[in-house]
Description:
The protein has 117 residues and is of the alpha+beta class. The chain contains 3 helices and 3 strands, in the order βααβαβ. Strands 2-1-3 form a 3-stranded antiparallel sheet. α1 crosses α2 (66-79).
Amino acid sequence: MTAAGDDKPDDGNNDGAGDDGQIGIATKTRAKPKKPSQFKVLMLNDDYTPMEFVVMVLKRFFHMDLEQATRVMLHVHQKGVGVCGIFPYEIAETKVNQVMEFARQNQHPLQCTLEKA
Ligand code: TYC
């Protein structure tokens, strides 16, 4: 970024002055803006939660249709873990909390967690 509206490339010396060496309003921005980081919501297998309940969770909280929810549930059942979706941190955290609370209310040990994508 440059000082006070000139259109020369940044001199990069970051001395607080513009490219012309004059003091002005600090308008420097990041060279590489950080993308909001994404998080996988993972579903874990267990021996007790009914398959139908897991399918219901995937439909309700992850907006999957019956076929997709059944495929993900069976993947988790067979492999031990599976991805329900990838979201910005706050949304991923909310989904995990919703799933855990719904499982708890229904007395199932279903576990759901986050992992950086
Ligand atoms: N393994 C469970 C059963 O046999 C089904 C299940 C699937 C449980 C996926 C949890 O995340 C899960 N009833």
